[in-house]
Design a protein that fits this description.
- The protein is of the alpha+beta class and about 150 residues long.
- It has one domain: Histidine kinase-like ATPase, C-terminal domain (Heat Shock Protein 90).
- The chain has a 6-stranded antiparallel β-sheet, covered by helices on one side.
- The chain contains 4 helices and 6 strands, in the order E-E-H-H-E-E-H-H-E-E.
- Helix 1 runs antiparallel to helix 2 (about 45-65) and helix 2 runs antiparallel to helix 4 (about 115-125).
- It has helices at about 25-40, 45-65, 100-105, 115-125; strands spanning about 10, 15-20, 70-80, 80-90, 125-130, 135-145.
- The protein is globular and about 40 Å long.
Length: about 150
C-alpha cells in the first residue's frame, strides 16, 4: 500500500520494507504495527511483541525527526537452532556526532529526552549502530525467540 508522501510497505514473505519519504508520524505507527505483526506470526509473546514494536518505533521516530527519509526492513531470521526478528533502519540524514553518548542515553540534539536509541538498544537482544556526520545512520537490531 503506497500513499503519496506516506509509507510504502512492501511485504515479501516474512520481510517487510518501509520507505520513509516524508516527516510523517503515520509511518511510525505503520512500522510499529508491521513489527508487532511479524513478531506475533513468529511466535513471540505479547511482552516481546511490545518490546520489538517499541524499539522499532523509537528508531523510526529518529529517522522521521532528524533525517526525514530512509528505509526500515523487518525480516524473520531462521538460523539453525533459533529464530528471530531482524530490523535494519537506514537514512542519509545528518548522522550522530557522538555515537557513544547516544548509546548511553540522555543525549539529544532535538527536543526529546535522548532515550530513543538507548531505549531501543535495551529492548533488543542485539543492537549495532553506525553513523557518520553528514552521511547518515544505520541501525541493526535483533530479538531472538526463546
Amino acid at each position: 500500500m503506497a500513499q503519496p508522501n506516506g509509507p510504502d510497505l512492501t511485504p515479501g514473505g516474512h520481510v517487510v520494507q518501509l520507505r520513509i519519504t516524508a516527516a510523517d508520524d503515520v509511518i511510525i505507527v505503520s512500522a510499529r504495527g508491521a513489527a508487532r505483526e511479524l513478531a506475533r506470526e513468529l511466535g513471540f509473546g505479547v511482552v516481546d511483541q511490545t518490546r520489538i514494536a517499541t524499539a522499532v518505533s523509537e528508531i523510526v521516530r529518529n529517522i522521521v525527526q532528524y533525517a526525514g527519509a530512509g528505509t526500515v526492513t523487518i525480516e524473520v531470521r531462521d538460523e539453525p537452532g533459533r529464530k528471530g526478528l531482524v530490523v535494519v533502519a537506514e537514512d542519509e540524514g545528518p548522522g550522530i556526532a557522538d555515537v557513544e553518548r547516544a548509546l548511553a542515553g540522555g543525549y539529544t540534539t532535538g527536543q526529546g529526552f535522548g532515550r530513543g536509541i538507548a531505549g531501543a538498544r535495551a529492548l533488543m537482544d542485539e543492537f549495532e549502530l553506525w553513523s557518520e556526520v553528514g552521511r547518515g545512520t544505520r541501525v541493526r537490531m535483533c530479538k531472538w525467540l526463546t
